[in-house]
Amino acid sequence: MTSVETERAPYVGARIEPSADVAPDADLGPDVVIWHLAQIREGAVLGAGCTVGRGAYVGPGVVLGRNCKLQNYALVYEPARLGDGVFIGPAAVLTNDLFPRAVNTDGSLKSADDWSEVAVTIDTGASIGARAVCVAPVTIGAWAMVAAGAVVTRDVRPYAIVVGVPARQVGWVGEAGHPLVQEEDGWRCPATGRLYRETGNGLEPTA
Fold it and tell me: Structure pTM?
C-alpha cells in the first residue's frame, strides 16, 4: 500500500499524502486526493472526487464543488467559490485583495481586520490555464476557458475563451474544451457536434 492510499482520520474516504497539511476542520468529501506538500486551510470544503496537486494551496473557508482539479502549486485564496468540475492549472492564482498592502498608513503590520476579502467565483466546468491570474472580484462563467498566462480583471461570460493581459474574449468553447466553429445557425463543437446559440450573457447549448 502506498502512502496516498492510506486514510487519515477524520477524513474517511479521502487519500492524503503524509507531507500535505490539512486542517482538522476541513471538510473533505469521498475520493478526494491531496498530493505532496499541499495545504488545505481551516473550514475549507472540498466536494467528492476533488484532486489537489503538489504544493497547491486552498485558503480558509474556500469551497470547491465535486470533481474539481487543482494542479501543482495552484493558489486559491479565500473566499473563492468553485463549482463542480472546475480545473485550475499549474501555478494559477485566484486573488482576494483589491488594495494589497503589507502595512497600514501608519506603518503598522496589517492584520485580518485591516482589509476586506473579495472573491473569485468560478462556475461549473470552467478552466483556468497555467499561471493565469484571476483578480478578485470576478466571476468566471460556466464552461469558460481562461488561457495560460492570462490576467482576468473583469467577469467572463459562460463558454467564452479569454486570452492576454488584461484578458479579452477571442472566441467560444464547448463542454469538451474545443473551440467552437461558427455556422449559419450557431456555434458547433467539432468534437461532439453539439450546437450552441448566443444569448445576452454568453452561449447556451441547443437541445
Answer: 0.92
